[in-house]
Amino acid sequence: xxxxxxxxxxxxxxxxxxxxxxxxxxxxxxxxxxxxxxxxxxxxxxxxxxxxxxxxxxxxxxxxxxxxxxxxxxxxxxxxxxxxxxxxxxxxxxxxxxxxxxxxxxxxxxxxxxxxxxxxxxxxxxxxxxxxxxxxxxxxxxxxxxxxxxxxxxxxxxxxxxxxxxxxxxxxxxxxxxxxxxxxxxxxxxxxxxxxxxxxxxxxxxxxxxxxxxxxxxxxxxxxxxxxxxxxxxxxxxxxxxxxxxxxxxxxxxxxxxxxxxxxxxxxxxxxxxxxxxxxxxxxxxxxxxxxxxxxxxxxxxxxxxxxxxxxxxxxxxxxxxxxxxxxxxxxxxxxxxxxxxxxxxxxxxxxxxxxxxxxxxxxxxxxxxxxxxxxxxxxxxxxxxxxxxxxxxxxxxxxxxxxxxxxxxxxxxxxxxxxxxxxxxxxxxxxxxxxxxxxxxxx
Length: 444
Fold this sequence. Notes:
Blueprint: H1 2-33, E1 44-51, E2 56-61, H2 74-84, E3 88-96, E4 101-105, H3 120-127, E5 132-135, E6 170-176, H4 182-185, E7 191-195, E8 201-204, E9 214-217, E10 223-227, E11 233-239, H5 246-256, E12 260-263, E13 271-277, H6 278-288, H7 291-306, H8 311-320, H9 346-360, H10 362-368, E14 388-395, E15 398-406, E16 412-420, H11 426-443
Parallel strand pairs: 4-5, 5-12, 8-10
Antiparallel strand pairs: 1-2, 1-16, 3-4, 3-13, 6-7, 6-11, 9-10, 14-15, 15-16
């Protein structure tokens, strides 16, 4: 009996020492690749590395501390979408009455979005001969998420949220010049148009000396101020004010060629039109880090689970149920990561990524998360393509990366590196993180 206990103690002692040895080696690696100069000296940095095969953390550095994660928040919204949106997106639900077709929107951001050539919802609406009425009794949140920066309103990455997105809730402004003509050389006016074509107020600047084509929307109305630039071809995408359903109805009238009204009538749906394969939307969301898609995915998931598009209620539901076991309870504010109110730890991201691996499988996740040289990783990890699948996150003072890493020895690591309050160019920090993860892949 005494010999047996000695063997057990020796066994666990060897495991403990091996674990300590791995952690020590990774600590040396972080010192050599991340902390060997002043780039991160003044930053707040957290790192967690988890061996999925051994089901244990092999390295932690401030991994239980809270960080603003920026677009790493989309990982949590992706979980909600994969959990509740099934194989195909619900484009809309409807009920046909004797004199009206009632539409119950689902928040689908793929409707008339240029990323999707097939438009089953539009085709369905185009075929209708009865008057169409859209109800939004299932819509609860504001157009902007909690904690969004108001002065970013003119940037495409901050498109408003609503129950019935159309064209991604942005207007694409396009400038074209004839590069070979004498007129272009003489700086005559360029041809400028919008997609979709709009009837809203547009003011063109008389200044033809600007180097850059620019479009500025008024803060409180759909009024656009345009200055032509010297570019031969240029494009700017600017969010429009949704005004609930109003702007969508105006744009839809022009596109459909028929009037569509809003209604407060509550009707139980009897049919559904699916729009796109869910994973096709998720992939674009993660590859491009599309904020509009992420926000609407969370709202669509809420609609499917709770019967109402309410991101606040959905966040509370998830944190109380499927995501109740987060290692550190996060402060989760929005679906996209635009809000600085979001606070997660590196261990939180490792936990949710591990949960997603177990629930959805790595084969599916590898089709959704970008790998080296693709999406938001297009300028990094080229030599690690096919070995790393991860989500980036960036905003002023924030660089984050969380995901999966296959090592040269075939091990699957789940990692999260979060950097806050840095004063360096973001690209410098991304290169350091890339060096750390590449070296970790080759050595572990």
